[in-house]
Amino acid sequence: MLRTVALQPGVGGEAVFDQALAQTTRVTQSHSFSIIVPTYQRREMVCEAVNALARLEYDGPLEIIVVVDGSTDGTASALAGLNCPFRLKVLEQANQGQAAARNRGAEVATGEILLFLDDDMICEPDLVQQHARAYADGADVVTGEVPIHPESAKSLTTDVLTRAASWPRGGKASPFDVYSGHLSIRRKVFREVAGFDEVLFAGGYGGEDLDLGLRLFGRYDVRHCAAAIAWQKNLIGPSAHMRRARRVAAADLRVMAKHPQVKTELLAHRGAPMRGKMPLSFQLSRVPVLAPVAAAAATWLAMLAAGTRFHANPLLARIYFTARSVSYWAAFQTAAGKVIVRDRGRGN
Question: Which candidate in 64, 155, 291, 344 could, as Cys together with 306 as Cys, close a disulfide (CB 3.0–4.6 Å)?
Answer without folding.
Answer: 155
